[in-house]
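Q: May I have one protein plus its fold?
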Amino acid sequence: MSGPVTYGGWQSEKSGFMGRLSGTGFVLITGASILALTPINLGSWAAAAVCLPLALLLLVVAFGRVMGLSADEWIVLAVRHQINVATKRNIFLSGIFAPRAAEDGAQPMDLPGTLARLRILEAPDGLGGTLGISHDPMAGTYTATARLTFPGLALIETGRQTARVAAWSGFLRSFCTEDSPIVRIGIHQRCLPDDGAALRNWTERHLAAEAPPQSVTALGELMTGAGPAATVRETYLSVTLSASRARLAIKGAGGGQVGAAAVLARELHAMHGTLSSASLQVVEWLTPRGLAQAVRTAYDPEAQLMLATRKAAAESQEWEGTPPGMDPALAGPASAETSWGTYQHDGAWTVSYQVRTWPQSEVYATFLQPLLRPRQNARRSIGMVYEPIGPRRARQDLAREKAKRESARKLRAKAGQDESEDERREAQVARTQDAARAAGQGVVRMTAMLAVTVTDLDELETACAELQADAAASGLELRRMWGAQDVGFVAAALPLGQGLPDRRIGF
């Protein structure tokens, strides 16, 4: 009998301007070199007393590290944050301060930060229902979100675990083609205290009229205590279509937003079989109101109970009031404020983290299990975004990475420096990955964000410490997203497929 399959080989993305230096770092070193040579050219000790300390300062900024960032990146981030604070652009207010209604009388969506440009569109799903699509007009993308259920991996035998992981890998690989219009695949999962609305609604509908009063009272007390003690997980899949890549198909489907929605719906129908083979069952593709509810409950945890109760009542066909979900115009928070290390929104506080380093050793398929461990004092979210890369670009990128590493190794060898074990391992991983690509495997870029949300500020640091401890147990290295907590919240807490930059940046 074969043993459990292990996984590994993640590589951090590197794209420095020269070696591992960013463009800013290269400019700083150039400036330091000019300052260091100036006293020699002038032959002046007075010039040396002025220029040499400045040159040293520039070198420290170029090579120094602050909170996991290079010093020049940290300075830019800190200055930008202080400018936002001084101009109050870190504060968002909705309600009476929201933008005016459009000419047709409809209230536009009112979302903070990077979400302000999004629009939630309504389109037919091809099966007689409606589909909610998040449209980013600046990036030219259309994103649909589905709510999933899955049996998990922890309690099944090894063979089935391997088969499900392989099926998910095949699902991602199917988009690693030159002409695929799908540019991002996102998985988002939340772990939050169960509000018990569905359980209470089911109990009320199945409670016999002749039940003894004592039994009804005991059952009510049990439900009151059992509901808040439980936890529930919500899993979402987001699929993003690029209008530029699918322009011919969109034109053939009628053009514009209507054509883009039709092409996206066609892509969604085509992937159902592959998802089923990975034991991922699509419960529903979210409608505009369902998508707005997913966004609203992330910003306002207190709204979870009301919206879940309304949805449970609607599913039992005993509700004749407001339809389930949320009006997209009300999806955003009433107020939000971004500080250096936290994000406050509608009476809750969130801290977001980026996964900076994945496990260096081989791990099992369940290695992320501790991250969504139930916690009564906080809700956790994880967002993972994948960008499939076409074969031609994958070949070019991997060849470029190999060339960089080989050049660096030769330079160190000429300088008499020994090669470290980390460098040998990175070179071996790069060769293995290139061999897998040549054998037909796909290559994807990915990023992962984590968020922890509390409604009591006194419990925030405890919840953060627990999350970091669980991440360490999973072999992950996290970095708090200092100065960019609002951006981190969007990527980690909202199932909108956000978070992966369009261009490569240095790590």
Observations:
- The longest strand covers residues 182-193.
- The radius of gyration is 26 Å.
